[in-house]
Write a structure and sequence with these properties.
Number of strands of chain A: 7
Radius of gyration of chain A: 16 Å
Family (chains A, B): Belongs to the short-chain dehydrogenases/reductases (SDR) family.
Protein name (chains A, B): Short chain dehydrogenase
Keywords (chains A, B): Oxidoreductase
CATH topology of chain A: Rossmann fold
Number of domains of chain A: 1
CATH architecture of chain A: 3-Layer(aba) Sandwich
Order of helices and strands of chain A: EHEEHEHEHEHHE
Strand order of the largest sheet of chain A: 3-2-1-4-5-6-7
Largest sheet of chain A: 7 strands, parallel
GO molecular function (chains A, B): oxidoreductase activity
Strand content of chain A: 15-25%
Oligomer: homodimer
Shape of chain A: globular
CATH superfamily of chain A: NAD(P)-binding Rossmann-like Domain
InterPro entries (chains A, B): NAD(P)-bd_dom_sf, SDR_DHRS6-like, SDR_fam
Chain lengths: ~200, ~200
């Protein structure tokens, strides 16, 4: 398979890319580094990136940001950071990316446990994750040519646990092996419209 | 109680307003008609509207729109109709409205069954509803002065069933009585951060 992994140099993206690279051709995209540059918050950047790489069998997005802050500090504009990047970035990736997929290809997006079990400071981040969950279920109904669309929603992964544990009181970490498996399930399984939740 | 109902002249808003008006002071706001004009897609309009009415005990929003269209016809800009109106309109209402509430007041937002069980043509509408569900759970963690935040998510209501039934194959309608009760549960109950789902 030819697999494009956007954010394939990140904390989760790197082990996912390493896993798939064992038996597949993996192309890594990122905002600043990788085989090619894609900034998902800019649909022109998505279009240009995709136009450079020919047909794919799978697109995996492990990228996108949203602002974390106390609710009373989040301005209207702050919410639009997440709306443009993690929300519409991933929506646009589906809109534009499916035309670059071979029949029976797949698109895998990423959210996180905040969609279902938020913590303080995440009014914006949780909102964006929850929006993607419902989007995936809806858009999956209209995929064609056997193309599948799923989203992976993980708890705090082991390699980010030290950094984030104070924000997630009582949350348990997800091993990197399990994190990788969530993406394998989406890419190599046959599910469509699934929210693949790996929480502990 | 003094209750502001935004969208209080709509299919669901009117019976909700009539119910609460029996024992409360109800102020109805709408884009074009009502006791005062509020267009939730414009945060300046929300601010101006709220500044005219003094302190409240409850704010109920049964307003907001999103574009319905086949997935391959929805442009990037089409998604922003829902993001500005039903999503950020309701977020801004919480941001700005809570400062106009008496202690132990409440804010009730509205979504719908699409958040959990979407149908064709609703990639944008479902996304917006799902985003609000996660937002409410997150923002509710940071409400102060006893202020509560909930969201009502209804199936297709009886009075809109004929108009929408072809879009919702096999969905059952929700009686207007049940629809009203969902809002009563939010406003007069003690729950915070709840997604009040009334599906059949």
């Amino acid at each position: 398979m030819r697999i494009l992994i956007i954010g394939g140099n990140g904390t989760i993206g790197r082990p996912v890319a390493n896993h798939f690279a064992k038996e597949n051709e993996v192309i890594i995209a990122g905002r600043s580094e990788g085989d090619l540059k894609i900034d998902i918050s800019d649909s022109t950047s998505i279009k240009e990136g995709l136009s450079q790489i020919g047909q794919l069998d799978a697109i995996v997005c492990i990228a996108g940001e949203a602002k974390w802050a106390n609710f009373d500090e989040l301005s209207e504009e702050d919410y639009y950071i997440g709306l443009r990047s993690k929300l519409m970035g991933q929506v646009n990736l589906v809109r534009l990316g499916r035309n670059h997929l071979n029949p029976n290809g797949s698109i895998t997006l990423s959210t996180g446990i905040l969609a279902d079990d938020p913590v303080v400071k995440t009014a914006s981040a949780s909102m964006v994750n929850g929006g993607i969950h419902s989007f995936v279920q809806a858009a999956a109904l209209e995929m064609e040519n056997g193309i599948r669309l799923n989203v992976v929603s993980l708890g705090v992964v082991q390699d980010a646990y030290e950094k984030y544990r104070d924000y997630f009181p009582g949350h348990n970490s997800i091993s990197m092996e399990k994190a990788v498996n969530a993406y394998v399930r989406s890419v190599q399984g046959r599910g469509n419209g699934q929210i693949i939740r790996f929480y502990e």
